[in-house]
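Re: [ENG-882] Designed sequences occasionally contain unexpected residues at chain ends

Forwarding the minimal case from QA. Structure tokens:
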């Protein structure tokens, strides 16, 4: 597996570093990075095999449609109809060309999405810590490890603080594995190599550093991927339903085609003609374009979402998005800007507030800084040492790390402290990583008196661990009354909309001591994180769309309630707030408790386990839940939710791996935009399915009724094939690419498990198909009896009536309740392009002599064109009448229900 050192788990960390010729405090220089990349290559696994254009083209000839068309060609040639047989061969080629162009567009769109989401890794190079793309790692790179990271190369651990890794992807072991720096025997199996971290695994806890020992295909994951290079194509539930619909229609078509052929033969028609007619009907009826158009619609929708900063990890998520009824969101960075700024610090005896770029003592006035204010210096020193972020000297735009920790370092610089000098003078000895349960973090730094312990965390938790408080220049006992006063100051700051953090410190004799014992309290730090300006309109959009928003945060109740009011989470009503302590365990919930929890819109001080319980509770109540998260402990909730939404900027890589969708901008309105796009995609797919099936039904009924009634066929088999290529394909494609309706976010979410085409949809298909059939048969009869047409001219009238009826039928696919002239169909430029193209092709079919001769068409004359125009518009008028009747009945029922 190794690129550069053999069995690194069997060597002491210092020996691995020596063999890799690297100093961990410096990292690799740019020159060394380039040299090692030339030797080992980029840190990439074998890319998923892409389908070549030739493979996609050949695939167009491996389906039932081509087999049926080929059978039609053989029957034509055997019957002596050479011209018709040749025409069918042309149809086969055109069908393949259309399928190829559509499918290659969808496939390439899906492949393009893979390039939009990349992992990054924090490394130390040339003495500076920076985030780099994971593929740029080389052996010898020093990787900075933190809770929530996805391991992007094989690493030998150098330092570890409470480090645990989820290695189930490699070993199948579901429980996290505790890691350490000790060397182990060379024969140690992979699952027990505690000194190693492997590419593709997840850090579930702790922090540390590691050195890259293998990249790309040289990693353990690379070896496995070489054995299992072929990945199965993922089909969404929607694609599976469409495929199932197509298969069922094949059998229905076979029965109908056989019945039509039998009826025609019994009526004395030419058996060869009826056999070709049955095959043509089968080809026309099977909506072979459904899966391709569905994939294209999904792919284009996903690309639209990606342009709006929402990256979809799984195709199935697009379908579910449209049914989302509850969005459970966190607060920081999603509803707020995640631009933390320290604005107030509560010190023993006084408060310090930020004014401009400097701090002023509240109440008595006057500027202050760390040089003259020792309590301020002690507080910010602890905040700077208990910190993993970095800020360039006096350049607050060049930062790296968590925004909260960055804000603490910026405050230290503004107060006159130099965090970089503090860290050099007091080197770090040990870190107790932040824990989401204890909500604290501690760091041991070298100190002349032993080891300085710096702690930061939630005020309640830090105060609980404190026994003293700095007062009058010396630590004094922290009485219970004093503790209550500090908690009251914490609540006061939180009520003002500040995110509050507490700091404490002490001197330890040994780095192995419990860091949270007998601490000395230093003060409170309040940070402002303003709500995003665009969140309030997004909240209003959710209410209009029937989507409920629930805030779930680990912050304090007063802060959560204040932000909820500012963003209009509950509209005009004041948001009710429940804390995690007020939520009973699921097994102890009474019906009243359940109702109270389900009705609440804001939850504060909630644990990761409770997030999972809240999602399950809403799902049991029938909701489709989208859940946002950013931390390691959010991963189970992200997986449990119907749509897991991870933060792309501040989210951990574990959360991003677990989620169905990643917000590249961490913004709540992006979720709303993605839900809108999910609804549009589903509406588009449903529209083109309704369109195709109703058009196909009209073709079956026209030929079937003529055959059963022993009448002349109003349309020939070859004309049916021609229509199948023209009026079926292009308008259906255009419907699948539409940009949606203005009203799409003005209606309630659709049922998650509702059928794509319910009983109402099938009724519409039947009515539309019946109206089109009646118009075509009427045009045929009127042309014969009223205009005296016959032969090719009469056939042309019925052929063009059917063609234009299907073209105008696309306007029947507008949403219920939308305006007749301005709707999702009329605003879709693809629809107008398809109509123009199809009209041009139909005119060519009549007036281009070679094509007209093949199809058996002739100029119908002015009277014929008038009949075609009038009769082809009747189904559109009938569709509009049907829509108004249905709409009136719906409104009447709504009024009766309201009354």
């Amino acid at each position: 597996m190794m690129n550069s050192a053999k069995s690194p788990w069997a060597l002491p960390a210092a020996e691995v570093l020596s063999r890799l010729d690297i100093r961990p405090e410096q990292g690799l220089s740019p020159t060394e990075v380039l040299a090692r990349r030339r030797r080992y290559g980029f840190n990439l696994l074998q890319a998923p095999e892409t389908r070549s254009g030739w493979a996609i083209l050949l695939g167009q000839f491996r389906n039932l449609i081509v087999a049926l068309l080929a059978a039609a060609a053989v029957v034509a040639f055997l019957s002596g109809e050479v011209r018709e047989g040749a025409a069918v061969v042309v149809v086969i080629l055109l069908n393949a060309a259309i399928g190829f162009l559509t499918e290659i567009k969808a496939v390439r769109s899906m492949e393009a999405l893979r390039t939009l989401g990349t992992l990054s890794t924090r490394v130390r190079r040339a003495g500076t810590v920076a985030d780099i793309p994971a593929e740029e790692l080389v052996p010898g790179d020093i990787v900075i490890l933190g809770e929530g990271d996805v391991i992007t190369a094989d690493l030998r651990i150098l330092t570890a603080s409470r480090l645990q890794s989820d290695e189930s992807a490699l070993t199948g072991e579901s429980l996290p594995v505790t890691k350490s720096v000790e060397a182990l025997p060379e024969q140690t199996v992979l699952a027990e190599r505690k000194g190693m971290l492997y590419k593709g695994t997840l850090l579930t806890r702790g922090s540390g550093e590691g050195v890259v020992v293998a990249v790309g295909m040289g990693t353990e994951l690379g070896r496995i991927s070489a054995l299992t290079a072929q990945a199965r194509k993922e089909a969404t539930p929607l694609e599976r339903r469409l495929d199932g619909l197509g298969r069922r229609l094949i059998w229905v078509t076979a029965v109908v085609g056989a019945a039509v052929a039998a009826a025609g033969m019994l009526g004395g028609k030419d058996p060869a003609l009826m056999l070709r007619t049955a095959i043509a009907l089968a080809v026309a009826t099977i909506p072979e374009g459904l899966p391709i158009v569905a994939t294209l619609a999904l792919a284009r929708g996903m690309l639209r979402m990606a342009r709006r900063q929402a990256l979809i990890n799984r195709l199935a998520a697009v379908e579910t998005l449209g049914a989302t009824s509850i969005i459970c969101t966190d607060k920081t960075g999603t509803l707020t800007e995640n631009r933390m700024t320290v604005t107030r610090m509560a010190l023993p005896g006084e408060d310090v507030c930020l004014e401009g770029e400097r701090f002023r003592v509240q109440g008595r006035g006057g500027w202050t800084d760390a040089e003259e204010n020792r309590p301020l210096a002690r507080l910010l020193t602890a905040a700077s040492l208990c910190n993993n972020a970095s800020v360039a000297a006096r350049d607050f735009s060049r930062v790296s790390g968590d925004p909260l920790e960055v804000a603490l370092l910026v405050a230290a610089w503004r107060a006159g402290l130099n965090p970089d000098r503090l860290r050099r003078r007091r080197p770090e000895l040990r870190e107790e990583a932040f824990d989401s349960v204890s909500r604290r973090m501690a760091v041991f730094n070298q100190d002349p008196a032993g080891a300085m312990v710096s702690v930061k965390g939630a005020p309640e938790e830090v105060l609980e661990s404190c026994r003293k408080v700095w007062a009058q220049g010396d630590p004094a006992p922290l009485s219970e009354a004093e503790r209550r006063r500090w908690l009251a100051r914490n609540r006061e700051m939180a009520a003002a909309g500040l995110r509050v953090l507490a700091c404490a410190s002490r001197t330890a004799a040994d780095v192995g001591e419990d860091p949270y014992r007998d601490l000395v309290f230093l003060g409170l730090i309040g940070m402002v994180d303003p709500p995003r300006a665009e969140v309030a309109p997004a909240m209003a959009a959710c209410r209009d769309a029937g989507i409920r928003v629930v805030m779930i945060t680990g912050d304090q109740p007063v802060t959560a309630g204040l932000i909820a009011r500012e963003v209009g989470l509950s509209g005009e009503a004041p948001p009710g707030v429940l804390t995690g302590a007020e939520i009973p365990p699921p097994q102890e919930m009474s019906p009243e408790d359940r109702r109270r929890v389900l009705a609440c819109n804001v939850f504060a001080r909630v644990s990761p386990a409770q997030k999972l319980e809240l999602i399950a509770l809403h799902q049991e109540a029938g909701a489709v839940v989208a859940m946002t998260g950013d931390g390691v402990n959010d991963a189970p909730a992200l997986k449990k939710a119907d749509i897991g939404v991870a933060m792309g900027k501040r989210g951990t890589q574990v959360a991003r791996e677990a989620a169905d969708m990643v917000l590249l901008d961490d913004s709540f309105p992006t979720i709303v935009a993605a839900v809108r796009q999910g609804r549009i995609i589903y509406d588009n797919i449903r529209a083109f399915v309704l369109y195709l099936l109703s058009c196909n039904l009209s073709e079956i009924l026209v030929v079937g009724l003529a055959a059963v009634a022993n009448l002349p066929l109003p349309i020939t088999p070859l004309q049916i094939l021609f229509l199948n290529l023209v009026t079926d394909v292009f308008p259906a494609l255009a419907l699948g690419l539409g940009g949606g309706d203005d009203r799409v976010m003005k209606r309630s979410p659709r049922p998650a498990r509702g059928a794509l085409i319910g009983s109402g949809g099938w009724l519409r298909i039947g009515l539309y198909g019946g109206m089109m059939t009646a118009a075509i048969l009427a045009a045929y009869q009127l042309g014969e009896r009223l205009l005296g047409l016959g032969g090719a001219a009469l056939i042309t009238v019925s052929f063009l009536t059917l063609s234009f009826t299907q073209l105008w039928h696309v306007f029947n696919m507008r949403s219920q309740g939308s305006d007749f002239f301005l709707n999702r169909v009329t605003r879709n430029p693809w629809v107008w392009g398809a109509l123009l193209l199809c009209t041009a092709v139909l005119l060519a079919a009549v007036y281009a002599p070679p094509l007209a001769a093949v199809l058996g068409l002739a100029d119908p004359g002015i009277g014929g064109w008038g009949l075609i125009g009038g009769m082809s518009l009747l189904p559109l008028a009938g569709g509009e009448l049907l829509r108004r009747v249905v709409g009136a009945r719906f409104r009447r029922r709504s009024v009766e229900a309201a009354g």
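QA comment: On inspection the terminal residues look reasonable. The longest strand covers residues 154-166. Proposing we downgrade this to a documentation issue.
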